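Example record

The entry below shows one chain as it appears in the dataset: sequence first, then structure tokens.
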Amino acid sequence: MGHPPGTPLYDRMKREGRLLDDLNDSDGWATSGYTNMLTRIPPRQLLAGFRRIVETIYEPRAYFERTLDSFLRLPRPATVKGRWAYFRWLASVELKRASDKKDSSGTAKMSTLGLVRFFWDFLAMFPPEFRKEIKRFLWRVLWHCPEQLPRTLSFILMCYHCNRYTHEYLKPRLNRVIDQAPAAPASPVAVEETMQAA
């Protein structure tokens, strides 16, 4: 949690003497849960809370539930014909890069069989447990808002990327930082020393 200069929170932290050095992410503070202020809760507790958030936010089931919820909040054509037209337009936009066949405007041209084959090959790229959650998500989209199916591709890729980044980079880094963090609230000097050691 960083407080950039010029914000009301930054000014308040500075007045209260709780501000550490200027926000500088050159050593990865933002990706390690650091803050540029002295907190009232112990640093270890703050970092453990941050780790708990990142451990769950990109877990596939939770991510896909939020994604489906966001799809359901989008405006929806009132008729089946309108939804089909929207599906076709969205498919042409989302699959533009994936298709070799394009018309003069660059819009993707893919048959229904080609679309099914594309999704099948796409799913095969992921590990089995992740694939299971993707299939669950896709079935729910098909049931609740099938016109949004083409939109799922980018969300699936984003979930996978964020999930891998979290588990392979962020969590190990956080674990090292938490092991070094003081268990009790510290003075500005002690907090800065811990940050520099990580």
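Notes for this example: Residues 38 and 195 are 12 Å apart (CA to CA). The mean pLDDT is 79.
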